[in-house]
Amino acid sequence: MKHILVPIGSTETAHTTLQYAIDFASEINADVSVFRAYKAKSKAGSMVNMNAIIERETNLYLRTMVNSVDRKNVDVKLISSKGNVIESVEAIDKEIGIDLIIVGAKSNSFKESTFLGSTAGGLVKLTDIAVLAVPENYVYTPIKSVLMAFKSGIINRNTALNPLKLIVEKFKPEVNSLLVKTPDFSEKDGEINKGLTALQTSFLTTENATTFQGVLEHFKTHNPNMLCVFKRKRGFFKKLWEKNIILKKEFHAPIPLLILKGE
Fold it and tell me: Which CATH number do you get for residue 57?
């Protein structure tokens, strides 16, 4: 893993997300690109180039944010982009190749009932890049235990497990796999991918109405400091991925959530 992208919004806790990303990157020898998109604006009859002003303000904001954290000798780059977040991220990925996106779980514009805000949710839903969603004000700690929850052992994307493989290689955590058998479980879902098997420390099956209920049932037992799930058409969150915003009553996690792309 070489390149970590950190989208920065206008939140009071944005610097803590950035510090988490830098601390994480320091452990795995990756670089960090701090990113912020801005919308194009025009003012009729004005000689002032509004886009240029907004770009300068965006770059100033990014520099101020980076100066507020401990960079720990990590190579930190600043990227400002005109347009929406998703299109900008896709363009950056094509140019440098993004291995992981680390993003704050929600923005200030949403109520306390929200777990994933529109930026984090949109990145999960609309890109093919693994996302690590960090709760508000979460302070980095080395990863010692991962709870990996899934409702199917099938993985069709060859590179889907790469972020987790690196975490296992660098941190040597326990990886406790939880196969949640929901009402639509099939025998094929029980065929566990060899890559998953190679990474896991323990394996457990449970029967629940939803994957989230399975996570809730076993969360305290394993006491993880990272939760890992898959985003796919028929997998964790299922209907939740049809929208960008995810409410806490639908799902929430008090620890970083690593979302791998299984398809």
Answer: 3.40.50.620
Tell which residue, 87, 79, 84, has the closest CA to residue 127.
87
Residue 3 pLDDT > 60: yes
Mean pLDDT of 192-212: 92
The C-alpha atoms of residue 188 and residue 263 are separated, in whole angstroms, by: 16
For helices 14-28 and 162-171, angle between their N-to-C axes, nearest 10 degrees:
70
Question: Looking at residues 17-37, what average pLDDT do you find?
Answer: 94
Q: Which of 169, 175, 189, 174 is nearest to 236 (CA)?
A: 189
Under the banding of pLDDT at 50, 70 and 90, the label for residue 116 is low
- Does residue 258 lie in a domain region? no
**Domain extent at residue 168:** 145-238
Indicate the burial class of 17 (C-beta count within 10 angstroms; 0-12, 13-18, 19 or more): buried
